[in-house]
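Hi R.,

As promised, here are both runs. First protein below:
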Amino acid sequence: MKPIPYARQDVDDQDVQAVVEVLRGDWLTQGPAIEAFERGLAAACAARHAVAVSNGTAALHLACRALGLGPGDRLWTSPNTFVASANCALYCGAAVDFVDIDPRTYNLSVERLAEKLTRAERDGTLPKVVVPVHFAGQPCEMAAIGELKRRYGFFVLEDGSHALGGAYRGEPIGCGRHSDATVLSFHPVKIVTTGEGGAVVTNDPALAERVALLRTHGITRDAARMVGDSHGGWYYEQVELGFNYRITDLQAALGLSQLRRLEAFVAARHRIAARYDEAFAALPLTVPYQHPDGRSAYHLYPIRLRLGELGKTRREVFDALRARGILVNLHYIPVHTQPYYRRLGFSPGDFPEAERYYQEALSLPMFAGLSAEDQERVIQTLREVL
């Protein structure tokens, strides 16, 4: 029987045709498809600006650089995330710290953040940037984080890599109501895909302009930004040390085509989640909690096994499901327990809620194209294994 992955892309004929048209056109990169994709992203997020880049990690790095993060500064994020949410600070020469998670949403805890900020203000160690991660597509409590931002003066960079198509208090993730910018990812397992790709969305024109400059080596052809006089139509200047973090027109064409189905993708994920919720009501596990202020994009469907009731380890459940072709995954190993971060001084026990979640978690198959038959197979196999 064919294995069922935990996630996969959904590419249709119209997506393929969009890429073919670019292949047959004049621009494969740095062309008009990128600008069209950026306009589509900005509209989808109800933001003023979007800058598309090569991947979500590049988006995090560029956003941090554009916010001025550097040596002597601090970035705080959640330990329950992919390592890129923390690594972006180290790329800038800044220090990293973490804020433990809420036991219901698995997002950065506002209560722990407030406590940590009180101590940091006393000690003179306030962060310059806080990166709340909308884990699994569940929006963070952004209004409360925004209040803390105003009180303590840090920047808020939302990691919305899981959350395109989600909403907080009726507004799209990425709208910037309570933050300075939001980063997105378009890896194949995400809500929409460009193959690889990412973006920074913001309402700040200066921030968007700086991200756009940094993604292309820090080079400009804009005479207003040049130090010297223009020498002709060939002339450009490197005015900052930037990077080659460009996205291609091929990727942008795919992404723009995928955006037309964004609402359908998220609606399908909600139907799948509702079926899981119903099917697992009597099983010894906890289904994902949904905060009333948010509408999840349901990038992931993470369950927590109630191991005390099971008489089995999480490893036994994981291996048994995979052996039967249900390719569950695990999101995430807490970042502070990774060997690299241990060498920076972090230790197991530092963020106990994230560690408890990790010990019990499994991510079940969740993608818009998951058929009713395959979902039923996931449900029945999990029931048998438990």
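And here is the second one, sequence first, then its structure tokens:
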Amino acid sequence: MNLRPRLLLLAAALISSLIAMGALGERLASDRNRSADTLRTFTVLTQQALRLNSAYRDMQTGLRGFIIGGKDVFLEPYTRGETEVVELQAALQKGSSVLAPDARAALAGVVLSGDIWRKTAAEELASFRLGQTKTATEVANEVGKEQFDSLRGWLGRLTDRLTESQRATNEQREDRARQLTMLLIAIPATGVIFTGLAALALSSWVARPLDRMVVAVRNIAAGDLSSNVVVGGARDVSEVGDTIDAMRSTMANRLAESERLREVADRAREGIEQSAIVTLQLRGEMANELGTFPSGWTAAANLLPAAGLVAGDCYDVTLVSPHVLGVIVIDIAGHGAPQAIMALRCKEILRAALRMHLEPGAALGLLAEQVGDLHPSFVTAFVALVDTGTGACRFANAGHPPALLADHDDTVHELAPTGPLLGVFPGSWTTESAQMDPGAKLAVYTDGLTEARDHAEAFYGMERFAELVVTLPCEVAESVIKTCFDDLHTFQPLRLLDDVTLLLVCRECEAS
């Protein structure tokens, strides 16, 4: 399988896992919130049941006191409790929809037995007011005792059922909360695992095969044509190794024919370096497939290698998510096959880091960790993430020439380095922010552009380039790129001594 489908499958697995875990988390959070709401309801109902029990006791106490003592002041708890009983029973019946069948049955028993007792109590009260008197013993034994005992039994069952429901609901809420906590821990752990897998996969599919390819190309360049070239890795990378090996074999046969063909063999050896990089699609795979972008945004780029050499520059503009552009420009010190292969390796690592949603500064940090064998080659890089919805631009610059951000009012901002270049000393890279409003242009270039010289050894220079970028309208990025390179050819007709790369991202002006 080729490299790109493998990376797509790995990304699809990560996205599917995160979506599934997100859906599960949403369901757990919903269950937890519902349990919390139900728990609050049961708490209120339990408190109301306890208050109802207390109100009925107050009524019974007030009625007995009034019948025994005969004073209206003793009847006050009865009167107050009767009003509270009506309100509490109505509130319990209103909230009964959440109750289990046995709890609803207990509530119905409370209401029925309560109505019966209150009716009996009212009759006793009326009899007393008509002149019938009773002793304290008679009151204790006769005033609705049987009905009140039944009422107390139903109130006890209702309170028990509500307490059990409250406890069960609280346990369910705590269980969902624990599950949600475990899921929140599992989500970043999954991201770490997939990041590790991606790093291992890139090392197995790309990095190690490219290392072997670099060694093979260097051996061939040194004149060792006896060893077969076997690189392995992804199929398209392995095919590059097969192509190099086929060309090595051809060169060996030609050298064996005659010393006279040494010059031809030397040219063929130079050709193997060039063809290896072309087969690896450094110019197509890495630089030219910019793809399509959201409405209102265009991007274009061009790369001119130094005359007769394989470029050590590369670039990439791609959508890392539906509304975020990833921008990468890399400049490897020197020229030739090893530098070009190293540029591919750096670009693929940065692209993978952006697709794993790392910030630009963190992506450069990952690159520094993954390619610690860059010495003696030095690398500068510019990495940016552009939100095509808001125009927000987050960037990091590893010793690269400052990118130019030109606003619609011709104001120019330099996006300067946020950390050292790669391959010299250990360092860290921060992520800075900028804004691309409608009509803005982001120009990223390598120093081969500004340091190009004319016949008089004068530099093309930053000032001339910045003025050209500011004055050109940015309706379509491709036209700006063409104009800039036409101006460079007009200034400097001699052969280039360094690679020249220019990448432009344009945001159209808003319709008036």
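A quick note on the second one: The chain has a mean pLDDT of 81. Let me know what you think.

Best,
J.
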